Amino acid sequence: MYIPNLYKNENQTEIEQFLHENGFAILVNQTNGKLWATHIPLILGTNSNGEQILIGHISKLNPQAESFNQNDEVLAIFSGSHSYISSSWYDHENVPTWNYLAVHVYGKVRLHTYEESIESLKKLINKYESKSEKPIRIEDLSEKTMREARGIVSFEIEISSIEAQKKLSQNRDDKNYQNIISELEKTNENQAIEIAKAMKKNRS
């Protein structure tokens, strides 16, 4: 990912928090000689060696699943909030732009055993069921329902590198920076308001 130095985010704590909060990713690799992308949730975790990994699964019917045996190099793309920035919000003539948050994670896929896949499903369900009034637990599902777990390919991505970008008008002076925040808040659009919050946090 092309990241100008001004927008590069190397704060490990921020990046981990971003991945926890924006876990629905696009998983990309070479499948049958062409680029292939699958939209899936991925969970940041650690392996037995204490190294960071991403955990996920896809359907066995997805051609990408078979491709992992020949090409284990993958890219996981995580997108955060984003918003159009009008140049009419500046006190001088300039071009409009777009503010956004994004993280790219590169790594190699290691396929799970069936037992490992059940553990990864537990982690996924426990994370997203934590806010449910009546949370579902893998341990409570019937044998019949759990047969569906045979239809997935579960894996972990051994992370080789992470690239993080937060493009938040860092190139603007305080006056224009604050005006952008005000204009974003006026839109009453969720994405714009989230970018305004990120801008406030980034230059607090």
From TrEMBL:
**Sorted alphabetically, which SUPFAM superfamilies does this protein's record hold?**
FMN-binding split barrel
**Coiled-coil residues:** none
Q: Entry's InterPro entries? A: Split_barrel_FMN-bd, TR_PAI2-type
Q: Which domain of life is it from?
A: Bacteria
| Cited Pfam families | FMN_bind_2
The protein depicted here goes by the name FMN-binding negative transcriptional regulator
The beginning of the lineage is:
Bacteria, Pseudomonadati, Bacteroidota, Flavobacteriia, Flavobacteriales
